[in-house]
Design goal:
By secondary structure, the protein is α/β, with parallel strands linked by helices. It has helices at residues 16-31, 51-59, 68-73, 89-98, 113-126, 140-151, 182-185, 189-205, 334-351, 359-378, and strands at 5-12, 37-45, 63-65, 79-82, 102-105, 130-132, 157-165, 208-216, 221-223, 239-241, 247-254, 259-265, 274-281, 285-289, 295-299, 310-313, 382-383.
Length: 384
């Protein structure tokens, strides 16, 4: 057997998601021992004083910097994770791929479709591989749902509900971080949670043909923050205006003819990461909830009326469960989904072929989000 090759990796931005990426690189060969590449943590960059050096000490990076450009120029690094704020995605993403380095970047890849497409085109021109952080499609139960839909187990899909509700910004004292500004955070909950919802819908049901949308800002002002406070933090500074959307609702028409209702909220009191889908077909139905990640509720048969749901636990034959657990009913966690992404990213680099969500998927999601904003502006259906 050929020995795996090492590849130096760097992480730009070290908030929560930067930590998740670092842990994923460290764990990936525990779960995928036959990967052809071994990631080595070379350097981490974050502009907050002391954050990068602390990350290097905690996670074992060989070096650290407050300037991401040093990672892009580092010849020891062959792949870079970008987990910086949205408004930096385009500049950093383009620089990474133009330097010939492979890119693992968090959604939504910029503050609009123009940013996302620019990074995609730069990556295509550079001939590098990309992975985008649409991690919910990696859940083994979601993989099983996709297989059931494709096999016709629930008949022809007629309608669906896609819901991404969170309460991380429900408290009015939640700090006015970059996420709540138009320049830095873009279109608010659309890019944050709506991008995940769109990608999950596309992954399960195919391309979106047209949509109509509505949005609202529910908490119009928040206390300003100092330093590097996250969107989970409370603050007590002077109030500032919230410039982007708290809530999104949309009606979707898929190219298949299926219809869907999509909702996303970052201020939904009582909802903690209530992310999932309900999908109905002509002979059955299924539903999935992130908080019960390993479970898929399925209704199949020939009864139509009074046909109940049953709970199907993800097994070793569904998605990548076998890389983490030996059998059904043993839960996986959020970080495991990012380890699956890391494995797909490294496999893409080794084979030269995409494995998992790519920048092309990010462009499709961003186009849908821009169409939603256009629909809100005009009050009309928008075709994609």
């Amino acid at each position: 057997m050929t020995a795996p090759d090492p590849i130096g990796v760097g992480v730009v931005g070290f908030g929560w998601m930067g930590e998740v990426h670092a842990r994923s690189y460290q764990r990936v060969r525990h779960h995928y021992p036959h990967l052809p590449l071994i990631p080595t943590l070379v350097s981490v960059a974050d502009p907050a004083p002391g954050r990068a050096s602390a990350a290097a000490a905690q996670y074992g990076f060989a070096g650290s910097s407050e300037d991401w450009r040093e990672l892009v120029a580092d010849e020891r690094i062959g792949a870079i994770s970008v987990t910086a704020p949205n408004f930096l995605h385009r500049e950093i993403g383009e620089a990474v791929v133009r330097a010939g380095k492979h890119l693992w970047i968090e959604k939504p890849v910029g503050v609009g479709a123009a940013d996302t497409r620019a990074v995609f085109e730069a990556a295509e021109a550079a001939g590098v591989q990309s992975t985008v952080g649409f991690n919910y499609r990696a859940a083994p139960a979601v993989a099983h749902a996709r297989e059931l839909i494709a096999s016709g187990a629930i008949g022809t899909v007629t309608n669906a509900r896609i819901r991404f509700f969170s309460d991380y910004a429900a408290h009015p004292d939640g700090g006015l971080s970059w996420r709540f500004t138009r320049e830095a955070g873009g279109n608010g909950v659309l890019g944050d949670l709506g991008s995940h919802a769109v990608d999950l819908g596309r992954y399960l049901l195919g391309p979106i043909a047209a949509l109509v949308a509505d949005t609202s800002v529910i908490i119009p002002a928040r206390p300003t923050v100092t330093g590097a406070g996250s969107h989970f933090s409370r603050a007590d500074g002077p109030p500032g205006d919230v410039e982007n959307e708290d809530y999104l609702s949309a009606l979707l028409r898929f190219s298949s003819g299926a219809r869907a209702v999509l909702e996303a909220s970052r201020v939904a009191v009582g909802e903690q990461n209530t992310y999932g889908v309900e999908i109905h077909g002509t002979t059955g139905a299924l539903s999935w909830d992130l908080r019960r990640m390993g479970e898929l509720r399925v209704s199949t048969g020939a009864d139509y009326q009074d046909q109940s749901y049953r709970t199907v636990y993800a097994t070793g034959g569904h998605g990548d469960l076998r890389a983490f657990q030996p059998g059904a009913g043993i839960p996986m966690g959020y970080d495991d989904l990012k380890v699956i992404e890391a494995a797909g990213f490294l496999t893409s680099i080794a084979t030269g072929k995409p494995h998992g969500p790519t920048l092309a998927d990010a462009v499709a999601a961003a186009d849908a989000l821009d169409a939603m904003s256009e629909s809100v502006r005009t009050g009309k259906w928008v075709s994609l």
